[in-house]
Amino acid sequence: MIDLPAETIQPTELSVTPGPLVGPVLRRVVGMLAARADLPLDRLDDAVLVADVIADRAGAYAQDAIQVRLEPGERKLWMRVGPLTPGGAQALLSEAPDVGPIIVKLADEVQIDESEAGVEYLRVCLAYEG
Known about the structure:
Layout: E1 12-16, H1 22-36, H2 41-57, E2 66-73, E3 76-84, H3 88-93, H4 102-106, E4 109-114, E5 120-127
Antiparallel strand pairs: 1-2, 2-3, 3-5, 4-5
Helix pairs in contact: 1-2
């Protein structure tokens, strides 16, 4: 096996039609790339929880398919979700019943980018400093 430094890993983009496959596919890809970014097990679990929230809720705000770009780095993983309909990124960050705003609680950094075409992208970073 060739062990590549995390900074040489190329971004991964996936697009999944809303439905029963979104969760399993996104969970596995996020887990794999979080491990390649050398995140410890607790942060890897956090990344998978964020992926679960995205898989569960993003379909309502995705234009055709749930699109996610994953960028692993040195002990960090960036996720970009979108394009989303206006208000979709904030809706993903809002409180889930009984558990609160999961993404906001687990992420190290959260950004909402808006394009001139009126679509939004949610960017989430999970990192480990230790």
